[in-house]
Amino acid sequence: MATTSNHYRACAEKSLRDAEVSSLANVRERHLHSAKAWQTMAERAARVEQARQQQQDMTSLAPVQKTQDDQGTNS
Length: 75
Description:
This protein is about 90% helix and about 0% strand. The protein has about 80 residues and is mainly alpha-helical.
């Protein structure tokens, strides 16, 4: 399954392609505006995905650190 940020980037790219082939200025501007919005959402989603991954990494390390701390205090 594609990540949300990748989906948003794909939508931004499609909007840019649509803007390139548009012959009407107002339609081209609409596609460019859409591409900018999709790109902004992609960047935001990427930050959220990265923060979630970091949180998951920290959570998975916590039991190991706790076990090591417990062993050190029992000696």
